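Before relying on records like the one below, remember that each one covers exactly one chain. Contacts with other chains, cofactors or solvent are not represented anywhere in the record.
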Amino acid sequence: MSVTRTHLAGITALLLALVAPLAAAAQDADAPIQRLLQEHSALIEESSRTSIAPAIDALAASGLPQAQSVLQRWRAKEMWRNEETGLFAFAEEIDRDTLRVFDFADGAEIGERPDDDWEQLKPNSGIRGMIGAALVQFQLSDPDPAMRNRALDSIERDPEESHLVALRAARDGEAEPAIARRIDRLERLLTIRFGETEAQRIEAIESFAGDLSVDGRAALTPLVATRIEPSETEPEGEDIYRTLRPGGDILTREAAYDLLVSADLAKPRIDRAAKREALVSNIDGGRVAGVEVAALDSEAARDMAYAALAQSGAVDAVATEAEIDETLERFFFVERYVGAPAAVALAAQEVLRGIEFRIWLNQLADLALDAISLGSIYFLAAIGLAITFGVMRVINMAHGEFIMMGAYTGYVAQQLVPGYTLSLIVALPAAFLITFAAGVALERLVIRHLYHRPLETLLATFGVSIALQQIAKNIFGTQARPLTSPGWLDGSLAFNDIVSISYIRIAIFVLALLFLGLYLLVMRGTRLGLEVRAVTQNPRMAASMGINPDRINMLTFGLGSGIAGIAGVAIGLYAKVTSEMGADYIVQSFMTVVVGGVGNIWGTLLGAGLVGSLQKGIEWANPSNTLAAQTYMILFIILFIQFRPRGIIPQKGRAAEA
């Protein structure tokens, strides 16, 4: 009789079912890894986060070569247990009813088995996290440095007490200096939290003396946590941080009494508004608890009426103001360290005091660096104005719009030229040429007719500035346009976790110094500079010597405008590029030139530093109100000019008399 395919399939399934227990039993039950799993099988089956730790720790500390694989398979939910034999294995699901089973001892394939007799272990997220922490010690000994760094990243994100042993074991054998430093630092951080003895923790704490890093402060700060406690006797103990008296900023009278109430050491209190409301709601025939309403004109009288109501059960009994004062006098209030033992907390407090002082010094240095950076921006914006206003005595209210034109030139260059570096190289001379031409046109068409008429020059250039802003809006719209810096200007130069400065600001500072040198070279080392100084001091005498004052004025104004255009490109990398951006710098530019001393480039440099420092200082003192900072700065400048009307470095000689 022939055997059908259906019969064969049935016979095969029956044989698999009969052989499966035998195959499972054929696993190496005496293998060390299997014996270890059997020892902790009850905990593994229970799969509770509160009780599983001994099983995980035993696997991690076993030193068995299969331990890492077991933990990884367990975390990935690939560990299974045979219900008949109790042996563990790892398996892959072929379909809904069949598994491909492997032995933990040697990784050998046992075969395909029905899943009826196998139970999958599914650790929850908490247990998977604990297993991941245990796997760190294996990752720390991995030959791949990237894997070791990832292990350290994992420890930094979620440190565990078990990591401390792994770090100490890995510290001595680490060959990569950078990784060794990370391991040493993490070991000290974890010792602060999990050290076995107070001496170890204090030694680790003291190693962070003067360390300004955020992670160091984050490890130390919880150790100095305190709690305010009341006591009927004078408190004693090394863990006392300070003794407090109710009524100060740290412990108000109300907060102190609430502490007593929460500790069941005093009756509840009631605020005056609630007390008045309770009395009003219990008025009966013009009386409250038998007292005429008209007689309740003092707090003491209201306290008595309320006490009478409480005695009758109409309201809850509460403490009167006099009782509150009397109760507070009987108690001491002490602030105790609760984040760590007293010796550890005191050591952490001492280190944190030193760190706080260094933080203050570094914040001061960072503020000074910001002030220098802002001053360099103002100097770059004002150096062109130092020529047009300081040398030519022309009040050009359109100077800010030349800065804006330079910034938009940089934006257009980035749209046309591929590569941010190349486009920046193209934008700088292009911005100079465009704004130089615009400055020459303004001088030829408007300003040349208004020399020695400052008010009319101011009004005319103010009108030009409005027109230029509107033209920019018509061309580029009202939205801010991006002027992207090259990749090599991304990021910041960080001295520590507190003091840093962006590379763009460093570039602007260097550019400001370059233009200072260029100005000095042109004005003191070229014929044009000599002629400019001659025309500035005595135009008639200069004309009699063959110098054309009109030509010199035109070139000087064009030079100042061109420098403003280059400043616009640099500022555009740092600030938003809009049609109104020039207005953000015109006031500071004029203040920089006037405060420094009209017509003196060194005065302009000092003026930029003073204005930048003043603005940053006011913003630091009043960070939530930038408008107030601007107002205070202008008021200070006005007062400064009252005492030094000619600026920090006034001009001398005929130029000062012009």
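The chain has 27 helices and twelve strands.
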